[in-house]
């Protein structure tokens, strides 16, 4: 977390070539018109794409038409990608292979599971917690997802509620009709795993608090809440996300905000995380970078991947994250970042990646007509900061390298910059 705090405090300063290219193509500060043409001969790729899903490729269960156009450019006549592509989503209430199948059906080409990064995928790196008994919160296949990530001993919120029925008291219809016997045989919980937004927020908030305040023994009570509390690992910090509705929907970041606020109010102390995964976490981008490298090696592309282009619709998660990772790459190049990266967990071969450019599309959360997210002033009305508490506000990190209408224009822009034929 120290690495993250130090990185986010530095204002992003994209290279001059980004700004010059943006100005020459008329892309500064608006969603531009369509169409670029390139006559240069195609060469092996030295760049790759990190593509967000919701708001970029799909809205709810509907594919965005521009995504189909984009993949007609990205996929060759043999159904193979012309450049390495990884899908980086903050969704987490689905299995990795299921998400790959879903994308394959929507986009019309085979997406492999190892091309998909869910918000919690980097939790595979947190091996010190894999054998601990963890309370897991979320929805969908949470137990299976936890086991795929390496967690061997998990208990769900529903299982905990069934073991201690008197803990869940908000819904009058679910309150026990009689007082059950107290259990003293329930194994101690050693940590909390937050994989995504749950269905019954009041139940999950109450039981997670019970576990933290009781030091993993929710059937008992402690006179003083332990602090530091049990380890908490969380993924997906998005406050909002875009589905079919006209306005954004609550994301897992909203649930985390509720939990943090309740914990602070009850204990007077700050809820701490052992790890925060998903965009804009540097660890998520390191994970994606490694998958891009592996994909290029499997395809036999000898030239190293030097540039990444991250396409997203959310300034706080997609733009902030890509710019934060770009800043990390620059610091690492000059020896200013920790060798192992965020959280001291990442171990990989030396990186050839030199830059990560952020491309913001107008098909999701981002509204080009809305106010810029800056610090409030008395002179002007501005948008509030939607980022997570542990990621400091930094206007430079929320400035996209490029703003385009949609993902198809994003692909055209990158191909133009790289001298590739459309």
Automatic annotation (TrEMBL):
Listed Gene3D superfamilies: HAD superfamily/HAD-like (3.40.50.1000)
Alphabetical list of CDD domains matching this protein: HAD_like (cd07511)
GO biological process: glycerophospholipid biosynthetic process
GO cellular component, one term: mitochondrion
The entry's keywords: Signal
Record family assignment: Belongs to the HAD-like hydrolase superfamily.
Database matches in PANTHER family: CDP-DIACYLGLYCEROL--GLYCEROL-3-PHOSPHATE 3-PHOSPHATIDYLTRANSFERASE-RELATED (PTHR14269), HALOACID DEHALOGENASE-LIKE HYDROLASE DOMAIN-CONTAINING 5 (PTHR14269:SF17)
Name of this chain's protein: Haloacid dehalogenase-like hydrolase domain-containing 5
Lineage, broadest ranks: Eukaryota, Metazoa, Chordata, Craniata, Vertebrata
